[in-house]
Amino acid sequence: MPAADTSADPAARPRTVITFGTFDVLHVGHIRILKRAAALGDRLVVGVSADALNEKKKGRAPVFSQDERVEIVSSLAFVDEVFVEESLELKRDYIVEHRADVLAMGDDWKGRFDFVSDLCEVVYFPRTPSVSTTELIEHIANTA
Ligand code: C2G
């Protein structure tokens, strides 16, 4: 029997959470925010920043390419879908396209994405202290 069409009933469809990030040199801070985001709903969709967007945001190329970062994040058990985030300005389009009910981000972005709060709930989680990709790169470079 074909599955019933529940698209008109918001209570019947899975609660979708969306989050964004570079997720370069994946570390425990990334894992924790993805797990916390996943726990807000039934389905977690992740926008992984394109290499060009990362260069614009951070002024350097990521260690791992966008294809590698997509592959790594896609392989996590609590991530359901991954796409490439081409621009910070496309948040509203991505939220609509993926039918997100919640946008979750670390609080280093606090307030920056409130402009989508008419489309979905916006949640900021505290960043995990004392770990960042930039510090990891420096640490590895200094101990190599
Ligand atoms: N994060 C965290 N704790 C850390 C480091 C990162 O909770 N110690 C969170 C960030 O707050 C972010 C996510 O992990 O929500 C991904 O972090 P980055 O890979 O640094 O991505 P970012 O450059 O913040 O990209 O559209 C917005 C973005 O593209 C965000």
List the helices and strands and how they pair.
Elements: E1 16-21, H1 28-38, E2 43-49, H2 51-58, H3 66-74, E3 81-85, H4 91-97, E4 102-106, E5 121-125, H5 133-143
Parallel strand pairs: 1-2, 1-4, 2-3, 4-5
[cytidine-5'-phosphate] glycerylphosphoric acid ester (C2G) binds next to β1, α1 and β4.
Mean pLDDT: 93
Number of strands: 5
The CATH level-2 architecture is identified as 3-Layer(aba) Sandwich
**Cα-to-Cα separation, first versus last residue:** 60 Å
- Approximately what portion of the residues adopt beta-strand conformation? 15-25%
| Main beta-sheet strand count, sense and barrel state | 5 strands, parallel
Q: How many domains, as an integer?
A: 1
N-to-C order of helices and strands: EHEHHEHEEH
Q: Give me the CATH fold name.
A: Rossmann fold
DSSP helix count? 5
Describe this structure in words.
This protein has 144 residues and is an alpha/beta fold. It has a single domain (13-143), classed as HUPs (Rossmann fold, 3-Layer(aba) Sandwich), CATH 3.40.50. It contains five helices and five strands. The chain has helices at 28-38, 51-58, 66-74, 91-97, 133-143, and strands at 16-21, 43-49, 81-85, 102-106, 121-125. A five-stranded parallel beta sheet has the order 3-2-1-4-5. It starts with 15 loop residues before the first strand and ends with a helix. The structure holds [cytidine-5'-phosphate] glycerylphosphoric acid ester. The site of [cytidine-5'-phosphate] glycerylphosphoric acid ester has 18 residues, from strand 1, helix 1 and strand 4.
